[in-house]
Backbone:
């Protein structure tokens, strides 16, 4: 570790020359900003793989029967797509990239509480990702269980499942350590005078998220270990032929994996809670209500997992209890939407790129949320459970929600992170294609599910053909938009016009440091006075 | 055929489930459209060009209470209709007509109390039918969209579902829970017949009767195999699926793994019987153990004799 005296204050974190050269200056760096970019580039690579697999699926489904691959390949493709997108993209997603980069700056700290642990988390993430990739490249057969690894199929399949399960297990540790790091950072390292209720909403959302990561992830870790032991030694926990119970697996899996949905969406909501006030130049409406709703979601989110299992075999009491709790957890999300829209009221709105993404986020998130009500009610859940309707619902939430928020956040903080501005005309075009493509891709799936088309279907009856064609066409439009967005961001990092310190006139602390920020963020730790606040415009 | 509106009252559950759909989706659409247009209106009205200076408003406790209480009431209404549409699915009437449904990779078979076995579900109209759901291997999902019923078929658990079919016709029956290679081909039909017609079909003494007619002495074996689902994993044309093909298998030598050791056996009557009753004892080299379940109690020795006769014809 170098002492503060050795690090010049006017050198940006991008230009800083430390002990190591080239790539080592990155992979050995404990600077939270460099670690954030390490996460971003690793995720971007994996995300493109996941997108390619998604496009392959949509192409296969453009017509009934075989189009480009056989059923075994299709099953492997949706499994690997799910494992990559869930465990490597949307769960770490916003916390690992924007949490790492912005959290210390937004609360006025020089780094996270444990910088070395932070770097270790990235190494663990890469190791987990490599393990999953190994399961694809080696052994006899690519995993074909779906990302949920349901028992007893997960120990009946002859495919190379163990490395994938072990990879997901390892990725969990990365998530736990990041959560721990953020909790300690938020508790101990806020700038003097920044009381809990003067902290911006993005750090607040990371705080709620971090507790879920810390408390819920170990459950899935244990569950995945049990599946592995079942596969290797046949210990008989989940295998009915040995006296085990496959439904127990589902309980354990969803006890983690439902709260994990909130790990994905809470930081996304946090980013939206920053973008809306900045572009409305107006104090966020209902600051405390938004915090309360974040904490309520994080808490109640632990008790709703049973709505994934209404047809699995539970007592009637358990079923309607889970149903009512699911409806309760919808309320805090609704409160957030009302507050965001009210923030726009009487604002001075600059509908710039990040704002466009944020508004589209609210729109697709509402569709995702309302379709969630259909899934929360017992009668309707039983009908659309395990159909394309569910696939549409969770893509609206985890891809619509997290994806639109991620792109909103990257366009919002990009000038801060790279010190340059992207091309706005291209950015707007990318957003437009992406949005139209997204809606065309996923909306028909609601219809297909209502018609009764089950999910994870390689082939389907001719009645489902028309909507599938539309959906496949949408996937190309969306991919086209995505390519524009990514190329624009890549090119602009080198060639874009130099960005000022505060291009959007934001009031949170990241806009008070140079773009890109110096190595230790602040010359002097800022002090929050009586009248200061993150949204005092 | 099974779009929500066009299957009105195909079963006794349709009204309740569709009512829940209409109420939840109706409220949702009103809010979605209302909120979206409010948002667009604000973006238009308070655009920076028109409104260069924002009016700072930090919040309103009154509004927070209103938009917590009203949605809470609305979701409780939704919960109620969801519950009301679902509750009758829990308990079948005592005098129901019983059928056992057996799910396996990758088909369903239906066994009636008089011993009939079919690959299509035949049910009488306007009579409660209770299904006992049994899985031989992994979890399957028993889903009849037109009837609005779905229940997972879980190995090691005895589960059930019931319905009263109210419309004559043929309705799709899918497997909804992912179960491996041919999950998407694990579908069949429910044939609903007026009670008189059903009775005539039911009392027909030929044990294995389904849609196909008897054509030759070996047809019985073929039909037994079709009904019990052999062809989900084995072909008759030499192509390799999960299990070896039946083509030219009878009388030929194959290499099998028995308890870790390879040995050669000739496929004869005895071997076929053993492969059906204890399939994991000798596994043909190159195939996975554990995928096929023993068929003890599902196929009689007489059934196996008929199957063997059919296999002999596959040169």
Residues:
């Amino acid at each position: 570790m170098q002492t503060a005296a050795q690090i010049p204050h006017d050198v940006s974190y991008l230009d800083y020359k430390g002990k190591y050269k080239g790539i080592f200056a990155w992979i050995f760096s404990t600077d939270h900003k460099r670690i954030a970019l390490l996460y971003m580039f690793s995720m971007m690579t994996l995300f493109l793989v996941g997108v390619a697999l998604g496009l392959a699926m949509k192409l296969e489904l453009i017509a009934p029967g075989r189009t480009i691959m056989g059923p075994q390949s299709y099953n492997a493709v949706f499994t690997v797509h799910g494992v990559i997108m869930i465990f490597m993209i949307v769960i770490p997603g916003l916390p690992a990239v924007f949490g790492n980069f912005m959290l210390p700056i937004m609360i006025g700290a020089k780094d996270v509480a444990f910088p070395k642990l932070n770097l270790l988390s990235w190494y663990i993430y890469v190791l987990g990702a490599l393990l999953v990739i190994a399961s694809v490249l080696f052994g006899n057969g690519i995993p074909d269980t779906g990302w949920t690894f349901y028992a007893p199929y997960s120990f009946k399949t002859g495919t190379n499942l163990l490395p994938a399960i072990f990879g997901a297990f390892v990725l969990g540790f990365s998530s736990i350590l990041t959560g721990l790091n953020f909790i300690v950072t938020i508790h101990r390292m806020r700038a003097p005078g920044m009381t809990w209720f003067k902290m911006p909403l993005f750090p607040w959302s990371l705080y709620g998220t971090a507790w879920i990561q810390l408390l819920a992830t170990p459950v899935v870790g244990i569950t995945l270990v049990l599946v592995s032991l079942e596969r290797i030694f046949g210990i008989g926990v989940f295998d009915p032929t040995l006296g085990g119970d496959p439904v127990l697996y589902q309980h354990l899996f969803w006890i983690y994996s439902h709260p994990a949905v909130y790990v994905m969406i809470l930081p996304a909501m946090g980013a939206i809670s920053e973008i809306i006030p900045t572009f409305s130049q107006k104090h966020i409406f209902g600051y405390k209500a938004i915090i309360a709703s974040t904490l309520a979601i994080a808490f109640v989110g632990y008790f709703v997992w049973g709505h994934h299992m209404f047809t699995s075999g539970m007592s009637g009491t358990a079923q309607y209890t889970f149903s009512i709790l699911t409806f309760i957890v919808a309320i805090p999300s609704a409160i957030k939407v009302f507050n965001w829209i009210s923030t726009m009221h009487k604002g001075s709105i600059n509908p710039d790129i990040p704002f466009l993404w944020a508004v589209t986020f609210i729109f697709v998130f509402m569709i995702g949320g309302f379709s969630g009500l259909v899934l929360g009610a017992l009668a309707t859940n039983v009908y659309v459970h395990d159909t394309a309707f569910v696939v549409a619902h969770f893509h609206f939430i985890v891809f619509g929600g997290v994806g639109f928020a991620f792109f909103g956040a990257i366009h919002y903080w990009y000038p801060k992170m790279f010190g340059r501005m992207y091309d706005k005309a291209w950015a707007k075009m990318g957003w437009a294609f992406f949005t139209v493509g997204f809606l065309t891709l996923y909306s028909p799936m609601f219809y297909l599910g209502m018609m009764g088309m089950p999910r994870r279907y390689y082939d389907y009856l001719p009645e489902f053909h028309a909507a599938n064609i539309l959906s496949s066409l949408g996937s190309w439009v969306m991919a086209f938009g995505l390519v524009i967005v990514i190329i624009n961001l890549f090119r602009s990092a080198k060639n874009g016009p130099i960005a000022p310190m505060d291009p959007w006139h934001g009031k949170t602390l990241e806009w008070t440091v140079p773009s890109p920020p110096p190595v230790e963020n602040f010359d002097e730790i800022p002090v929050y006075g009586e009248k200061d606040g993150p949204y005092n415009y | 055929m099974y779009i929500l509106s066009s299957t009105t009252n195909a079963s006794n559950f349709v009204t309740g489930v569709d009512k829940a759909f209409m109420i939840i989706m109706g409220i949702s659409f009103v809010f979605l459209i209302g909120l979206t247009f409010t948002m667009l209106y604000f973006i238009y009205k308070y655009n920076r060009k028109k409104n260069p200076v924002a009016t700072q408003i930090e919040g309103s406790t009154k509004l927070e209470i209103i938009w917590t209480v009203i949605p809470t009431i609305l979701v409780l209404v939704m919960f109620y209709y969801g519950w009301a549409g679902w509750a009758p699915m829990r308990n079948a009437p005592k005098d129901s007509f019983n059928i056992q449904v057996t799910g396996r990779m990758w088909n369903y078979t239906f066994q009636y109390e008089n011993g009939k076995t079919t690959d299509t579900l035949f049910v009488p109209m306007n009579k409660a039918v209770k299904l006992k759901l049994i899985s031989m291997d992994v979890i399957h999902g028993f889903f009849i969209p037109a009837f609005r019923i779905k229940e997972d078929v879980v190995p090691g658990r005895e589960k059930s579902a019931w319905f009263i079919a109210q419309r004559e016709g043929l309705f799709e029956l899918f497997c909804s829970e992912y179960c491996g290679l041919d999950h998407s081909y694990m579908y069949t039909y429910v044939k609903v017949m007026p009670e008189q017609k059903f009775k005539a079909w039911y009392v027909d003494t030929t044990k294995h009767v389904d849609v196909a007619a008897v054509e030759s002495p070996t047809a019985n074996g073929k039909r037994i195999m079709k009904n019990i689902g052999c062809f989900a994993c084995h072909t008759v044309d030499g192509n390799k699926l999960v299990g070896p093909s039946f083509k030219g298998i009878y009388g030929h030598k194959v290499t099998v793994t028995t308890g870790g050791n390879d040995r050669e056996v000739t496929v004869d009557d005895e071997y076929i019987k053993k492969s059906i009753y204890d399939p994991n004892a000798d596994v043909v080299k190159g195939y996975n153990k554990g995928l096929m379940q023993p068929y003890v109690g599902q196929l009689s020795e007489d059934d196996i004799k008929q199957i063997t006769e059919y296999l002999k014809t596959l040169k």
Observations:
- Residues 44 and 52 of chain A are 12 Å apart (CA to CA).
- Chain A has one domain: 29-512.
- The two ends of chain A are 39 Å apart (CA to CA).
- Chain A has a mean pLDDT of 92.
